[in-house]
Every structure is written in structure tokens, then in C-alpha cells.
Amino acid sequence: MNTISIHNVELCYTVLGENNPESIVLIPGLGSQLIRWDEAFCQLLIQKGFQVIRLDNRDSGASVYKPDSKNDYEGDLEKAFEKVKRVGPPYSLNDMAADVIALLDHLKIDKTHIVGRSMGGIIGQLLGANYPERVRSLTIIMATSLNPNLPPVAPDVMAMMTKPVVDASIDHEAYITHALTFAKRIAGTAFPLDEEQERKMIEAELKRSQPGNSVLRQLLAMGSWSYQEAILNKIMVPTQIIHGTEDPIFHPECAKDLARSIPDAKLQLINGMGHAIPPECYTGVTELIVANTKRQKK
Question: How far apart (Å, rounded) are the C-alpha atoms in residues 280 and 151?
């Protein structure tokens, strides 16, 4: 793993398949880490000739955001959003997109393929719209435009996402149990969760996570975003949208909305997939990504 300093962020990234001719950047979702793009998934892209760049978004994994006093948003979600109304969020989704551009600058990559999952898919939209000269193609997986007219997150899932998080340093097993319960809930019925592998992933994430990282600040960045269809209309790079039919976080209508709003976007729904990319789908998903990298816009 490597880190670079970007203003008030220490950004962690890895590069796999360094000698391959084309690069592809994988952006994780809310509170997620670069290791969620696991080695098996990455190897499929490497075998297709891609240099694979993974990063931890600011405030997750080994990427550390250093807030000043006015940007320190601790406490419960309701109080944090009240502060956002008064002084604005600690940072925005545009700031997170700019982190990716700074990483490309650091790596001396002029133009790359972008793949984002969940919140990473929203960041990908901003990259495609605002930095078209840096993006060769865009793949958006299980994401949304944050259009307020779209179906909301399933109520029980939202309750799980917003309840106070168990401190793993105080009750490790309770933390693991909650994380496993959540993972099972958002997995689709066609692809039952491998609990043993998921536990290993959760443990690995705990080891990588740095003190002070805050999913809350990422959530505030998403929650304070103002939906603008014009941003989607600006995306002129080849775009592939991939979404599960049983996603309880971002309803499949979110994917259809993206496909309608992004010019010439392609949509692929995967039956029985939830808000995760199960190993059984790795081959199909990477084939869609690779096909999109070769597509020419009309």
C-alpha cells in the first residue's frame, strides 16, 4: 500500500498489474475499503490487460481525513445534519472526486477508466461529468443519482445503517455480529452470503481502519448533496450501469433513472443480486466493464 498527501487527506492506494498498458480505477462505497475490490476480482481485470488502481476514500480504511475544529462532526446523525444546515458539510462528494484526480496526477495518468460501486458510483458520475478529459469510460455499480423522487432505502436497512455503531474495541464480537447481520440483509437471495469469508473481510477491514475515520462524515457528504440531472446529462464517456434486482439500499429504479439520464448509457440488471458483488458475479461484471472500455460513443 502507498499513501499520498492531498491537502488535509492522507490517501491510501494500491496498484496491481503495474506493467499493463491501460489503467482502471476502482472506487469503493460508503464506509467501505479498497480491499472490498478483492484480489480475485482484480485479477480478472489484470488478465484483460489493465493496471488496477484501488483507493480508500477519505475517512475509510487507511485513508485519513484531518478535520479542523469546525469540520469535526461527531455525535448522532440528527445533530450532525443540524450542524450541516448551519455551516455546511465537512467535505463534499466533489471533494472526494477531486481526491481521485489528485491520485491520477500523482501517478502521472492523463486518462483512465473509472469503476465505482455504491457511493463510489456517485463519485464516478462526478468524475465523468466534471473531468471528461480524464475519464475514458465509466462503470457505475449498484449506485444512484440521489434523485429525491426515487424509492428510498428499505426502512429496516436504513435503521441498521443509522443506529449507533458498536465499538469493536469494547465488544469485538458484537461488532462482528452486527456487520454480518447487515451483510446478510443486503445480499440478494440468488447469492447467499458466505459468512466465513465475510467475517474474514470484516476482520481485515478492522485491522486496516485508522483511528478517527468517520463514516458519519461520508454520510453527511452524501446527505448534503443536491441532485442535479444536468450533471448526469453532461456525462459523454461510454457508461455501463450494473445493478442487482434485489438491492435494498438503492432500488433498481435508481439504475433505470441513471440509464435514462446519462446519454447513451447501457444498463444491465442482475437477477437476485443485492447491494454487493458476490464472487459468482465477478466474471460477468468484469466482462461488462471490459466491454464498456472498448465501446465508442455514438
Answer: 27
Q: Please give the helix or strand (H or E) that residue 22 lies within, else none.
A: strand 22-27
Determine whether 277 is exposed, middle or buried from the number of CB atoms within 10 Å of its CB (0-12, 13-18, 19+): buried
Alpha helices in the chain (DSSP H): 39-47, 77-87, 93-107, 119-130, 155-162, 172-186, 195-208, 215-223, 229-233, 252-261, 282-293
In DSSP terms, 230 is beta-bridged to none
Q: Is 213 exposed, middle or buried (0-12, 13-18, 19+ CB in 10 A)?
A: buried
pTM: 0.95
From first to last of its 298 residues, the chain has per-residue pLDDT tens of 899 999 889 999 999 999 999 999 999 999 999 999 999 999 999 999 999 999 999 999 999 998 875 556 666 677 777 777 777 788 999 999 999 999 999 999 999 999 999 999 999 999 999 999 999 999 999 999 999 999 999 999 999 988 887 889 999 999 999 999 999 999 999 998 999 999 999 999 999 999 888 888 998 899 888 899 999 999 999 999 999 999 999 999 999 999 999 999 999 999 999 999 999 999 999 999 999 999 976 5
Could you give the angle at the alpha carbon of 37 between the alpha carbons of 228 and 40, nearest 5°? 145
How far is the CA of 274 from the CAs of 191, 197, 212, 244, 285, in angstroms? 8, 17, 30, 5, 14
Q: Compute how many other C-beta atoms are within 10 angstroms of the C-beta atom of residue 164.
A: 7
Half-sphere exposure of 289 (CA within 13 A, CB side): 29
Q: Give the span between the Cα atoms of 56 and 28, in whole angstroms.
A: 7
Residues sharing a CB contact under 8 Å with residue 90, sequence separation 6 or more, in sequence order: 65, 67, 71, 72, 73, 217, 220, 221
